[in-house]
Design goal:
The complex is a heterodimer of chains A (114) and B (179).
Chain A (H helix, E strand, L loop, with lengths): L1 E6 L3 E6 L3 E2 L4 H15 L2 E5 L5 E2 L1 H16 L4 E4 L3 H9 L7 E3 L2 H10 L1
Parallel strand pairs in A: 2-4, 3-5, 4-6, 6-7
Antiparallel strand pairs in A: 1-2
Chain B lengths: L5 E7 L6 H15 L6 H22 L5 E7 L3 E8 L20 E6 L3 E9 L2 E8 L16 H8 L2 E7 L4 E9 L1
Antiparallel strand pairs in B: 1-2, 2-3, 3-8, 4-5, 5-6, 6-7, 7-8
């Protein structure tokens, strides 16, 4: 569901490989994200470009994983969002808690300045 | 509300595997029947997130009962209705009538981003409303809620209500989008 495609000194780029993220796979998604944080102890740049459908269960899992990342003094940064998924995140104002960039390269640049 | 120009009924068996297919079927119907005055991009985005959450709600709470959707397109609005005979919404106690007079507006969840309210308009009829919260520059993420289903529908719609019929044990969610 999540594969690491690149890694730098401060970050890991993790690609979400599913197209539908909902109630049926949100627990597994969260578990994989938490495992990545534990394993790498770096900021996760999460590339969501393959995702076409998300629901509230997925967003809940994402927020829960972000809380865990923050507790480790790390972060989860989102990139590659389709317009409608970005609009959904803005609708419930989660753009106030997630850093969102268009492309992984932009996020890498920002993360390296942290 | 003017006379209904188009109506679709759709039965969902509450299986997660059929969520996307069911969503696409209903969205296709809406896209093909919107009046010219509607902002199609806006209405289809809102319909997508609303129907997704209603389908998810069916998977979570309808149990063995199938879920019945109705999509009604009027010249001035779209109505999405979901009925099932599963577990009543947690705000309703099926065995006891609420004391509406004591408390008709209740804060059901809140963080620094959003507050969500349930407003009892009668014993078995609840309308949802949301307000944006205020916060400082640095938002403590640990305080952010993790359950967004009702909030997403409330923020996307012009009116969102829930009705529990105590005689037939039927839950009805009704969402209205104005054009």
């Amino acid at each position: 569901m999540i594969t690491v495609s690149n890694e730098g000194p401060k970050f890991v780029i993790a690609d979400v490989t599913i197209t539908e993220a909902n109630l049926s796979n949100s627990d597994q998604f969260k578990a994989e994200l938490v495992s990545l944080l534990d394993q790498h102890k770096k900021i996760i740049i999460l590339d969501l470009q393959e995702l076409k459908y998300v629901d509230s269960a997925f967003l809940g899992a994402l927020v829960s994983a972000l809380k865990y990342a923050i507790s480790l003094k790390l972060d989860i940064v989102l990139v590659g969002l389709r317009n409608d998924i970005r609009d959904l995140i803005k609708l419930i104002r989660l753009d106030k808690v997630f850093k969102i960039y268009n492309y992984a390269e932009e996020a890498q640049f920002a993360v390296n300045k942290f | 509300m003017q006379n209904c120009a188009d109506k679709l009924g759709f039965e969902f068996d509450n299986s997660a595997e059929k969520l996307v297919g069911s969503l696409e079927y209903m969205l296709e119907h809406i896209a093909g029947n919107l009046p010219a005055r509607a902002d199609a991009e806006d209405i289809l985005f809102k319909s997508k997130v609303i129907i997704t959450e209603l389908l998810t709600n069916g998977i979570k709470h309808a149990g063995n009962s199938n879920t019945w959707f109705e999509i009604e397109i009027y010249p001035d609005c779209l109505v999405i209705r979901k009925n099932d005979k599963g577990t009543p919404l947690y705000l309703v106690d099926p065995d006891h009538l609420p004391k509406v007079a004591d408390e008709n507006k209740k804060l059901i969840s809140a963080d620094m981003l959003n507050s969500l309210y349930a407003i009892w308009e009668s014993e078995n009829h609840i309308r949802f409303a949301s307000e944006e919260g205020s916060f400082d520059e640095v938002l403590p993420v640990e305080q952010v809620m993790e359950h967004f289903g009702i909030l997403i529908i409330t923020c996307s719609s012009d009116e969102f209500t829930y009705t529990y019929d105590r005689l037939s044990h039927t839950n009805t969610f009704r969402v209205q989008l104005l054009f």
